[in-house]
Amino acid sequence: MLAYLSVTAEHPRMKHLRVRFGFPPRTRHPMHEFLVEHPEMAREELWSWSFVGGTPTCLFRVEGDIEAYRDRIADVDSVTECDLTPVTDTSFYAFVRAEPSESEWEWMLAFHRTGLVVMPPIVYTTAGEAVFEVLGDPADLRGLLGELPDRIDTTVDRVGEYDRFRSSATRLTDRQREVVATAAELGYYTVPRTATLADVAAVLGVAASTVSDHLRKAESAVMSSVAEPPSSTSASTRGAEPVDDSEPKV
Q1: What's the pLDDT score for residue 111?
Q2: Which distant-in-sequence residues (6+ apart) come within 8 Å of 90 by Cβ?
Q3: Which end of the chain, N or C, is less packed with Cβ atoms under 10 Å?
Q4: Domains, the chain, ranges and CATH?
Q5: 235 phi and psi, to 5 degrees?
Q6: Average pLDDT over residues 136-148
Q7: What digits encode the pLDDT tens for the residues 63-109?
Q8: 92 Rama sector, left if φ>0, alpha if ψ -120 to 50, beta otherwise
Q9: Could you give phi then psi for residue 236, rounded to 5 degrees?
C-alpha cells in the first residue's frame, strides 16, 4: 500500500488523493469504449451523480461529436434515459439514467466509505482511463486502494494535505467565479437542469453569449488543472511498500 498515507494518532490529517484507473477493454462501459475508439470524441467528465430512486442518474460534460454520441448511446441496453444539451459546437452535456454493470458496481462500491468524498469531475480519457480526486481520512483512503479489483490498473498521481486554496477554483477570475456561482445558484448545474444560459444572463444583466463565454473559460481552467501531469508523488499501488504508521508522511 502507500506509506505516504500514514499518520499517527497525534496527526489525524485529511488527505487529498488523485488516483488514475486504467480499465482493460473488457471492463469498460460501452460509452467509455466509444470514447476510446471514435476519432471525433475527445473527453468525458462526470460532474454529478445520484443513486436515489433505484437507477443511477449522472450528468456528463462531453467533448466530441454530439450526433455520434447520440447514435451510440441509443444502442446501449443499460441506458434507460439520455438527454443531450449542446454547450458549444464541440461540447455538450449528457443527462443519463443507466444501470451499472456488475464490474462497474464492484469498483464504485469501493468508494462507498463514510470518510471519503469524491470531488467532481471524474474524467474519462481516450486512453481508457478514469481520473478521480478523493478527499478523506488516510485510513479510509488506504482501505479504498486495498479494495479495488486487481484487474484495474490503479496509479496514484498525487497525494498530500488538502488545501482548498490550491484547488482549480483559484484559477478563475472574480468575474468567472461570479458567473459560475450565479449559474449554480439558479440551477444551471443541477440534475435535471432548472435554469438556462438566458436565465443566468438575465440575473447578471449581460448577454447569454457572455455567460456562455465565461462558463467555458471557467470550465477550461478547471479541466486544465485536472489534466496536469502527474507530480513526483506518482506511484502504482501494485506492489507498493507496506504502510508504516510510526510517523506522518506526505
Answers
A1: 77
A2: 42, 63, 64
A3: C
A4: 3-163 (no CATH), 169-222 (1.10.10)
A5: -160, 140
A6: 84
A7: 899 999 999 999 999 999 999 999 888 899 999 999 887 777 777 77
A8: beta
A9: -75, 145
